[in-house]
Specification:
Blueprint: H1 2-15, H2 26-38, E1 44-46, E2 49-54, E3 62-68, E4 91-93, H3 97-117, E5 123-129, H4 144-150, E6 153-156, E7 164-168, E8 172-179, E9 183-184, H5 194-207, E10 221-229, E11 235-236, E12 239-247, H6 254-262, E13 268-271, E14 279-280, H7 286-293, E15 298-301, E16 313-316, E17 331-333, H8 334-349
Parallel strand pairs: 3-5, 3-6, 6-16, 7-15
Antiparallel strand pairs: 1-2, 2-5, 4-17, 7-14, 8-12, 8-13, 9-11, 10-12
């Protein structure tokens, strides 16, 4: 077991310096493809998504191990170089170490473990995806048919402290445009300030309450996260745009939420994508039954992942802590990677098919 732990921690330390912001994953995808092939894995590519499949029993179902290789941009408050972090005895630091590097390397090590063992109760599909952090069109959004044809169910690797996450919120991003009428700032009454109209709508959205509260995920969560207007100090702006980040529960469709909110505001609302739904693991699923058998702590997640784009049953489990994601001075403990590998192997060995 130790050799797989050492392999994973060494691999993550080599991955971090390779820039892999969403839509810029090419170099990291090349590196990981070469690494897998050098280890005897027949790694294939679909764009910057990497996949490999190991068949142990033609009659057995296939479990997909899915984690993403891309990262967000580094926070400005890092106290060290996010891509060339210092060494530490008990942890691996750097951008993407926790989200989602720990899951990537733990899943690779798990896949190698069963491949070298030449025995597994299920067939395995390893999928290392791109563009997850920005829900890009080249990531799992483009792989629906591939996944349906090649996998029966999936473990989505994200930092959950190796708890079994059996539900997660969806994601609905709305681009809003508030109208106005331009005028000279000295004669503001002759115009209509789009910023003020936007602020009125933002206040309406801030106070909007969704009636349907999920037992697993709670209420729908809404935040305005960006705003932009104006091009000169002396011109009343005729347009103000802002972005709304919404985390739906499973009791609303994204299209339904968009329609409900549009009725409440003057701004024009346009969804970037209506397909990023909320997700839940059915209690009848082999994944849920396995987590139950192993006595794993079950939880739900307010954050979204590749799960929402998968057309198969899934559960979200991975090393690291979601509270560290997208923050400065990101890190993952080496012990968490070791725990991830050990628990992935135990989960697969005990899968309730």
């Amino acid at each position: 077991m130790q050799k797989y732990i050492d392999l994973a921690t060494d691999l993550l330390q080599k991955m971090i310096p390779i820039r892999a912001h969403s839509f810029e994953e090419g170099a990291r995808a090349d590196f990981l493809t070469d690494f897998l092939r050098a280890g005897g894995i027949d790694a294939q590519r679909i764009g910057n998504n990497i996949w490999a499949k190991e068949l142990f029993d033609a009659d057995a179902p296939t479990l997909m191990l899915c984690a993403h290789i891309d990262t967000v941009q580094a926070a400005e408050t890092y106290t060290f170089d996010a891509l060339n972090p210092p060494a530490a005895p008990d942890r691996i630091l750097g951008l993407g170490s926790n989200d989602d590097g720990g899951s990537v390397v733990a899943m690779i090590a798990t896949y190698l473990y069963f491949k070298e063992k030449s025995s597994c109760p299920v067939n395995l599909l390893l999928l290392l995806s791109c563009e997850e952090e920005r829900s890009g069109p080249g990531g799992t959004r483009s792989l629906g048919e591939f996944v349906k044809e090649n996998a029966s169910f999936a473990i989505v690797g994200e930092p959950t402290c190796m708890r079994a996450t059996v539900a997660e919120c969806g994601l609905l991003v709305i681009d809003a445009t508030a109208p106005g009428r331009s005028a000279h700032a000295a004669r503001a009454a002759e115009g209509e300030n789009a910023i003020y109209n936007a602020l009125s709508d933002i206040e309406t959205l801030k106070n909007y309450r969704f009636d349907r509260v999920s037992a697993a995920l709670g209420p729908v969560k809404l935040s305005v996260t960006q705003i932009n207007a104006g091009h000169a100090h002396n011109v009343i702006p005729d347009t103000c745009t802002f972005v709304v980040d919404i985390r739906p529960n499973e009791l609303y469709t994204n299209a339904e939420i968009l329609e409900m909110l549009q009725k409440e505001v003057k701004s024009t609302l346009k969804a970037r994508n209506l397909a990023n739904r909320a997700s839940a693991t059915p209690q009848s699923s082999p994944l849920y039954k396995t987590a139950l058998k192993l006595g794993m702590e079950m939880t739900t997640s307010p954050t979204s992942s590749d799960w929402m784009r998968l057309p198969i049953e899934a559960i979200k489990i991975g090393p690291g802590d979601s509270n560290r994601s997208h923050k400065a001075d990101e890190y993952i403990l080496k012990s968490e990677i070791a725990e991830g590998i050990e628990k992935y192997i135990t989960f697969i060995e005990n899968i309730q098919i």
